[in-house]
Amino acid sequence: MPAELSRVPVKGKPMAKQTAPDNNGQSGEPMRQYSPAQELINNSAYIVMILLGAVILIASYGGSAAGWISAVAYLAYGIAGSIWIMVFVCPFCRYFDTRSCPCGYGRIASRFRTKETVECFNEKFKKHIPVIVPLWFIPIVAGVVPLIRNFSLPLLVMLIIFAINAFIILPLVSTKHGCKECPQKETCPWMKYTIKPAG
Asked: Which residue has the higher pLDDT, 187 or 15?
């Protein structure tokens, strides 16, 4: 396991830039550091998907109590899904508890988890990512059924926007920005299938 990187600033001197550990625990190239604003940008498409999904659920039930309950449950699921990834995936990432995690999950996870062996990252990623996959489909299923029974242009527009954000914008933001800049992209199962190797 790589040795922990010291991040305690020395008085009168700037904090040293973190470097990416390789598989042998040696320091490699300097890692990019992400600000809170950059982390927010990298999470923006997911946030929009969850919020819009909740609105679709409310509209699908005609603003009834059932719609609001479904929306709250969906929002809770979206938040719980993020926490699930922090608990069961982030501790196995070699950039856990550093500013080099593009989405900032690694820093949050370090508040309640300790670092685990990085060799298990791929296995944990593949095992736990399916937990959040239904978030992409629940609003569509919930919206299409009432749309067929009683056509509603506003609901149709929201479903189209949701689909564009969830299946086009969100993957593009991750593969072309957040995940593309992640220092661990070479070994990440998600990036393995979304970005072609150079050359």
From this structure: 187
